[in-house]
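Internal tracking record. Fields below are filled automatically when a chain is submitted to the structure queue. Please do not edit lines marked as system-generated. If the sequence contains nonstandard residues, flag them in the REMARKS field before resubmitting.
Queue: standard
Priority: normal
Entity type: single polypeptide chain
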Amino acid sequence: MSYYETWIERSEKETDQQKYTQYMNLYFVLEKNAYDAILKAYPEYQGLVTGKASELCEKLNFGKSNMDIFVGFLDGIKTSLNKDIDVENVEDDTDIALDIDFEKLYYNMRDAKAEWLYKLPSWSNVLTVEQRDKISFEYREANTVRSEKIGRNDPCPCGSGKKYKKCCGKNA
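SYSTEM-GENERATED OUTPUT FOLLOWS
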């Protein structure tokens, strides 16, 4: 079984709630520490995110026995990269270079509602408060639901040409 298959099995298909909770809590701790290390090393972070998968796993303090969790970390960060990586086929000797788009990463952390990640103090090494506030504003704007109320005498949105009150609004 590949590391990715193990990750999926234990993070998405585990039926024992206690095992699942224990596994995911370990993941969240290791993930937070990895992001914190990368952010603290910025702008000289490339040494932490470039090399063989097994080396990066150790550099980011996942430990060799948690290679599947490291692959889960890669699966989570891949939408924030400028260059895609094939996480499904990561093995110990796979060459990895994470080209991180930090603004996208911050936005995605907001989108995942991962407050423990986007509120890391080490973000101040990478993005200014103004940049983080701007990204947070863009996130809120993109996720605000807006709808225009249809008036009873407005044309029906179904396109029938009738007034709303005489068409789809009849039974509303």
